[in-house]
Amino acid sequence: MTGAQHPHPTQAVVLAGGQGSRLRPYTDDRPKPMVEIPGTGTPIIGHQLNWLAEEGVTDVVVSCGHLAGVLQDWLADAPLPVRVTTVVETEPLGRGGGLKYAAGSLPRPDEPWYATNGDIWTRFPLRDMAAFHHERDAEATLALARPHIPWGAVETDAFGHVLDFIESPPSPYLINAGVYVFSAAFTDLLPTRGDHERTTFPRLARERRLAGFPLPQGAYWRAIDTAKDLTEAAKELSAQGR
């Protein structure tokens, strides 16, 4: 990666080809990113595109797969805040292969780019993440979230006395939040087929060229995997006045 690259990407890839089997029946007739968050009237990908536009992105490549036509029809009719190109995998390429295939349609291949999974509903300053990535001269930077554990936790003392019950505490571990900043050179490091998280990322980590950006305190983040996630997201957005 060269230090001359602009730290704030203006192009992005959205991976929107998943089956979304855990979200059935919502995904019986639409791909996962086309599922609406209750009360908003907007599918997940609509929220993502608005967020990317707010963060300075002008061009987005959407990688389609499952029920691609439904997503393409919506993109063709919706008033979009960015220029959108769609690509469709004709055969399964894996997460890394799909990312590389989509990146081939980015309008500025010599510039850095963002990527996000199509089932992530989040809001945080992408420009700050891009600056973090740039300062560390990384090839790739992934956002890190600390999700809440879905169960209640029990706190005890050294003698085994129960001290407290904590409802849905934050996890002690950071997880991959499904949002990335990549250098222009990163595209060539991706596998044509396969999973970059098992190949490219471990190699970059060993070489200290992979960075992790913890989401800022209070930043909203949720992966929409199940019907319960939809319900919880709607509640949280309502509480925030959105």
TrEMBL record:
<feature type="region of interest" description="Disordered">
    <location>
        <begin position="1"/>
        <end position="31"/>
    </location>
</feature>
<dbReference type="InterPro" id="IPR029044">
    <property type="entry name" value="Nucleotide-diphossugar_trans"/>
</dbReference>
<dbReference type="Pfam" id="PF00483">
    <property type="entry name" value="NTP_transferase"/>
</dbReference>
<dbReference type="InterPro" id="IPR005835">
    <property type="entry name" value="NTP_transferase_dom"/>
</dbReference>
<protein>
    <submittedName>
        <fullName>Guanyltransferase</fullName>
    </submittedName>
</protein>
<feature type="domain" description="Nucleotidyl transferase">
    <location>
        <begin position="12"/>
        <end position="238"/>
    </location>
</feature>
<dbReference type="InterPro" id="IPR050486">
    <property type="entry name" value="Mannose-1P_guanyltransferase"/>
</dbReference>
